[in-house]
Design a protein that fits this description.
single chain; alpha/beta; Rossmann fold; 7 helices
Length: about 280
Amino acid sequence: MQAVSWRLQVSRPPKDQQYPMTLDTHSLAPPASALAWREARALADLATLPFRLAGTALRRPHALGNGRRVIVLPGFGGGDRAMAPMRTYLRLHGFQAEGWGLGRNLAGLDRPHDPAEISWGLDLNRPYRGEGGVPHLCDLMTARVRKRAEAYGAPIALVGWSLGGTIAREVARDLPGRVDQVVTLGAPVIGGPKYTRAAKVFRRRGMDLDWIEAEVARRNARPIRCPVTAIVSPTDGIVGFHSTRDPHHADARYIEADVSHTGMGINGRTLRLVVEALTEQ
């Protein structure tokens, strides 16, 4: 099987950069169609995953995590089962990793809710077709993280893949004292689903993606207080690359890895990057 090539880059905004940064809206778009076939790289990651986990177990690097609590959130269409390799890898490194506990992540499309009760204070002076599904999930996850942090008597780190990363960011935004770090993998942070391949799913339901984009922009204007590390791929075939960068978060750390979106949660390099980010905190 052909080896996967890597291009790794760690970047931080210049110290003299003014914030919020000006967002180049012309660069925002779903990923190019030519990148779709590169998602097949995830098959190589899946094939080598058992050997990677077994090798990690033999090395017994348990002291790295030092028992730190981590909640792992799945991407769109996935659940805790999809994130089992990530949790296993973190546990092998000494973290106490657990799932998000909210079933499959279907962006709230499967969960009845009253948009007027969502904490985001959505603009409801327009037809509502479920655009608040993700904010509703964020509220549910915020309540869960608050409860877990209170039970542990310590803040929790959140690791989220794709939409799970977006939700993790919003939970951290609302719980600055109970979430002490966020690590995301290929998370869309600009535009909601508008600049992803999932956009057509939401459009078929009649959702107003411009409205969602505006609500996300309003949320982003309120800063996240804890450290954020974002692992992003310039060859992501699911999420538009430029939508993974938050112009409002001056201290966010970005790590570029040439990896498929669907392979981010099981790829050897990204798994190591997550552990490195959590242990550098």
